[in-house]
Request: fold
Amino acid sequence: MNRDNNQIRALRVSYEKSHLLEKDVLQNPFDQFKLWFDYAIKSEVFEANAMTLATCGSNGQPSARTVLLKEIMEEGYVFYTNYNSDKGVQIAENNKVALLFFWKELERQVRIEGQIAKVSKEKSQDYFQSRPKGSQIGAWTSPQSQTVTREELDSLAETTQSKYADESVLPLPPFWGGYIVKPVNFEFWQGRQNRLHDRISYEQNTQSEW
Reply:
């Protein structure tokens, strides 16, 4: 074993900030998530809305990347992306996904598994046109999951910017919009000393009970 691997083996953090007991959590996991999420924002966790999205297409190969939570709805969690991306293709093939929120400053994480669906075109348009114009241009410009040089990407952005120079908002791209992840189970994790971590899981028994 080389020195680098020895250094990796020695990387350890002692989790000592809090605990998680069943008597302390709320009955509904959506309420418990909102409690933790609000606390993460209040604690100024860096990009508290960043979440790892795991998908798996028809070839059985899992894939994961970070996306941003943009809305909490009664039935699930919403993010926006390019429907032509690799994740969009995998979602079209398999609507079962997983989310992971990791708030290292709080030594907490939340795992969510569920099913995913597109939100309405109206909701996607409303969010898209609320974004800064530069972000709207980026959505129109970026050929997701395709090989492109930096020069080509910059050229595409300049062309789009010129096309809509006199517009305050751009139209919604037909290939861009939102998804909602509707959970079927949650796991709340709190780091503890000596790797004896606390975990509380919720599973959906019926449409309204956990």
Summary: The chain is about 30% helix and 30% strand. The beta strands are 50-56, 62-68, 71-73, 76-82, 96-103, 108-118, 176-190, 198-203. The mean pLDDT is 91.
